[in-house]
Structure formats: C-alpha cells, structure tokens
Amino acid sequence: MKILIYGSTGWIGRATLKYLAENFPTSDITLVSSAKKSFKYKDKTYQVFDNSYLNSIKDREYDYFFNYAFPTGYNAVKYSEEDFISITNR
Questions:
Q1: Which of 10, 73, 76, 85 is the most exposed, fewest CB within 10 Å of its CB?
Q2: What average pLDDT values come out for the chain (90 residues) when binned by 10 residues?
Q3: Cα separation of 70 and 89, whole Å?
Q4: Do the Cβ atoms of 7 and 71 come closer than 8 Å?
Q5: The pTM is what?
C-alpha cells in the first residue's frame, strides 16, 4: 500500500503516521511538509521531504492521500478569514 501524507509534521499528520506505522507496518509511506526534516518513531527514522519534492512524484500513484497542509498557529491568525480559506484551498 502506497500512502502520501502532505502536512506530515503537524499533530494530525504525526497521529496519522503513528496509526499507519502500527497498523500497516509494511506500507510505503511518503511524508511531505513545508521543510525537510526527519524524525524517529519507535525504532524507525522517517524522512520528511519539503514541498518541492511533490514535483518529482507527480506521476506516481498512491493508494491513499492525506492532505493536512494548512496554516496553523501564528500563520493562521495573521490572515483574514478569506485569505486563510484561499491559502488552504491551494
């Protein structure tokens, strides 16, 4: 099973990864966020790719796509409601 989690470093993305790692350990999980990072969950280190990585996988097929990329914290309150919705929809 191939899975893409966009917005993977936020709390919803990490919770989804935790669930998938525990319940579907053989899945091929691709993690994308606003910045390159890596983090460890249990005994496995996960690489998180930045947004530019999406261009390199545009023709790849995934069984599941989770989109949790939306402004949070300070980034959420600095926008008007209309701008927040527009940015989130992009």
A1: 73
A2: 93 93 94 88 90 86 90 66 70
A3: 9
A4: no
A5: 0.76
Taking the C-alpha atoms of residue 43 and residue 67, their distance in angstroms, rounded to an integer, is: 25
CA dist 54 → 7, 21, 37, 59 (Å): 12, 22, 15, 10
Count of CB atoms situated within 10 Å of the CB of 17 = 21
CA atoms of 19 and 7, how far apart (whole Å): 15
Q: Is the distance from CB of 66 to CB of 4 less than 8 angstroms? A: yes
Contact present, 6 and 67 (Cβ < 8 Å): yes
CA 46 to chain CA mean position, Å: 12
